[in-house]
Each structure stands twice: as C-alpha cells, then as structure tokens.
Protein: Glycoside hydrolase family 43 protein
Organism: Lentithecium fluviatile CBS 122367
Amino acid sequence: MHKLGAYLVLLTSFLYLSAGSPLATNALDQRATTFTNPPLWEDYPDLEVIRIGDAFYYTSSTFAFSPGAPILKSYDLVNWTPVTHSVPTLNFGTKYNLNSATDRGYVKGIWASSLRYRNSTDTFYWMGCVDGSKTYVWTASGTNALKNNGEVSSWNWKAAATLSKCYYDCGILVDDDDTMYVAYGSTKIMVAQLNKDGTAEVKSQQVYVTSDSAYIEGSRMYKINGYYYIFVTKPANEEWVLKSKSPWGPYEMKVLVASIAGPLTNAGYAHQGGIVDTRDGKWYYVAFLDSFPGGRIPVVAPITWTSDGWPQVVKVDNAWGKTYPMPVQTSKTVPAPVGTDSFQGTALSDEWEWNHNPDTSKFRLVGGAGGLLLQTATVTNDFFSARNTLTHRIIGPKSSGTFRLDISKMKDGDRAGAALFRDIAAYIGVQKEGTAVKLVMVNNLNLDANWATNTTGTVAAAGPTIDSGTTDLWLRVQADITPAFGTSTQRTTTFWYSTDGSKWSQLGPAFPMTNAWQFFTGYRFAVFNFATKALGGEVAVKGFTMAKL
Ligand SMILES: *[C@@H]1O[C@H](CO)[C@@H](O)[C@H](O)[C@H]1NC(C)=O
Ligand SMILES: *[C@@H]1O[C@H](CO)[C@@H](O)[C@H](O)[C@H]1NC(C)=O
C-alpha cells in the first residue's frame, strides 16, 4: 500500500520524467528476441513471483474484488494468464458481501500479500493481512507441482488459518531446512517464525528500522546463496534490499532503485514487487508502475549480482529498459489476454472478479448460447450497493470491452448494462420502466473520499427505443488507460451500442476518467444487473470480447 506523503513527494518529482530510452543489448544475448515493458498491460499490483520447475506464478492484491488474490502463470515471465485465485471467497466479514450501504469493503480487503510453494508438503501458501487486524492463510495442497515440473493438476484452496495479528505487507520464506518465516511491517520491519504447518506464530522480532523514520513496506523475503534478503519499497519511488547472514538480522541495506526513469511516460517509478530466477540461473526483478487511470502494471528487468551478494538492476541508458531480451526461450505458451469469452464450462474463467463476494444463488453458467445468467440480486438505486457486478481488467493502452446481452427477461425497474467500473464510474445500459426499455448512458456514479456513495448517477444521454424482447444487444465500453498519473490530462472512455453486432453508435459524451490513486484499483470493464423495484428479472450475458485498439 502507499501512503499519501510518499505520493505527494512523487507527484512533485516525476512530472519531469522522460520516456523510456532505446535499447542497448551489448551486454545481453543478441540471439534472443526481445520483449517490451509492460509485459502484461493490466492492473496486477503488489505482486510476488515464484517459480516451480518451468512455471512462474504471480500473485496480486485485489481489495474487495472476489474471488481474490489471482495467480497468473507464465513460462517466460512475459506472457501471463490467470489460472486460479488463492482466496475463492473473501472470508473477512460481512462487509465483503456488499452487505449494506454502510457495511462495504471498498478499498479494504486484500492488500499486499504473499504466495510461496512449500515443496516438502506440495503446498502453496497464500497469506495476507486484512483490515489491519488479522492475517488469513489459504493453502492449496496435493497440486503435484514439484513432481510435474511446475504444472498444477488441481488447485484446491482451503482456508487454513486466521491469525489474530496483522502481518502487514507480508512476504513468506520457506528456508532450506523447511522452516517458514514471514517478513512484514512498515518502517519497522519484523520477521516472524511460523510453526511446522505455517499456520501460527512461534516467535517474532523487529529486524530493521529506518534510521530517519522513512516509510518502507511491501516485504519480500528470500534465501539466496546463504544470505537472507528482505526486499522492501519506499513508496512510490524506491526499492531497498536488506541482507543478512541470519533471518533475525542484523541487516545491511542498499538501495536497488530510486526514482528510476522509464519505461513509460506519465507513469510512476518501478518499485515494490519481487525477484525470481529462471531455470538457467538468471535473475529478474518484477516491479510495478503506478499507471492510473489503469491501475498498477508490472514491468520486468534483469538483475545481476555483485560479488558480495547485492542485486543490481540491468539498466538501459540509465533507465528501466523499454525492451530487454526474452528471459526464457520456450515453446510452452499460455492463452492470450484478449479475445472472446462465451461463458461455457462450469465456472467463470479467472479473468473475472466480482465486485465483493457475489450472491451465488443469483448467477449461473447455463451453457450453449445462454452464457452467463445474471438474476437481479439487490433492490437498490445505488450501483455501488448492488451485488453481482462482474468485472474484467482493461488491457492497455487502449481497448474495448463488448458485452452481448439478452435483455428480454428484465423486469420493471431493472437496470443492466456495461460499466466502466471504479469509484468514479459510468455505464451504458438498459433501464426498464413498465414494459418500456430505455437505452441510456449514465455518469455521475461516484463514491466519496470515504467510499460512501456520493451520487447515484445522472442519465447523460438516451438512445432510441429498444424492443423489450431483444435477445441480442451489444454494449461496448471503449477505454484509453494510457498513463496520465500525476498529470491533469484526463483520459476518456466512450460508450457504444449495436443491435446487430456490426453497426455501432456512440451514446453520450466521452467520459473523463480520474487519475487518482486512492482507490488503488484501476478502471475495469463490468457487467451488472440490479433491481430498483423487485427481484425476479434476469439478463443473459452471451459473450464478452476484449480487443486492443
Ligand atoms: C525444496 O525447497 C527447499 C527450500 O526452499 C530448497 O532448499 C530445495 O532445494 C527444494 N527442493 C527441490 C527438489 O526443489
Ligand atoms: C460529492 O459529489 C459532489 C458532486 O459531484 C462533489 O462536488 C463532491 O466533491 C463529492 N464529495 C466527495 C467527498 O467526494
């Protein structure tokens, strides 16, 4: 997480950043093809990357979206696809069910958390502090990952423990002798030793404190060549490395990066994240950039080690490279992030996350042309209190998200459509009044600074009359999440509809997005269906297509 003070420093300083610099490959393998940063232009912040055999796994924070803590998989550190979520249901209290207008979890929930694999028991551990008070442990055992070169035969996440202590911004380490440790805390960095199962604390102590009370957080813990390392961030500009012969310290500190330029213009500095090695022993640092309105996106750079065990980022013209050689040459691939989801199968793909825990009795995958059936789950006039809004990350820098809807079973008072989801939101959708169907573009859907609903929306434009029996209505959200962080430039989103899937009309004015970081999560595409009068209506989401523009 970030603290306001750090951001104010950042805002005044990085306005003068220049764009990424051309590549100098002389020190690197000329035969390799290159990749471009960011490898995946999507909002996957507070990351940790691990490797088992040929497979890399990447965990990320998700706040009040559910399921939480997705895991992305890659074979080359560049092409990533989500394969599971470590926290299938946010088991942190009623507010994570979008319980009421005053009992909601916006911006709370899963903050910087940790993922590790313990090979002695074939168990993945996810651990995170929620609401500053408790630490939740979820585990997946019997995955066969070690045996199968990193491939997981089935993810079987279980709530393993709740510790009545906050391991704030924690990073797990499984030591060579199988002892589990957790580094955590802010400014004062702590290390805890866990019990045999990794489900309770044996002891903990402070191992490092900044000399000038500088704010640091985001611990990642490693054991490499006999040294213990704790990587921490000084948000949102710097990454530090603490190094010691013992997990308990004393730790020496060196700065890994400080206000490093590149690779994108109008984005923040690469920081936080973690390091991982390839099978052939090369090391990489995967950090993230503040890239609002798009959220926080990963960037990858090689690291080298000094003879006395300090990592150094391989820079290009003294900046984070826009391109580097591919970390791994492999024929193994993962699915592309763009394309069409027609909601087949028995479960939603891991590209999807609900706004808070969904009411599982109000949606189902029906198969065939029916896709995803969304029944209204809440009677409200407040978009931000309506359950079962389904969200999808936006791929940058520009893309469209198109939902194909059957609206023929909506009921009087229902609202359904395609949203641009965040604390300052807008949508194109259908408002059913009696038997009439109004196609509208709505803006002024705003949360206030405390994440209470401030405004419940204004109809900014109305479209033509739509037949109430319409079984194919395409609604498109076209977003530009080119970073404009710390600038007054407002990127815009436009809303479109089609009744035949080929002829498109824009509805309403271009919507200016906020660049503010305080909501943490970047803008997302979303589909929703809620009632303002009574439950009973439904829409079928027959497909979703995300396309780069
Ligand atoms: C299992 O994990 C331990 C601790 O990280 C490590 O020392 C060991 O090399 C690993 N064994 C295998 C077979 O990967
Ligand atoms: C609430 O909305 C109004 C009107 O859009 C705006 O002027 C005000 O700043 C908002 N208040 C907060 C706390 O966000």
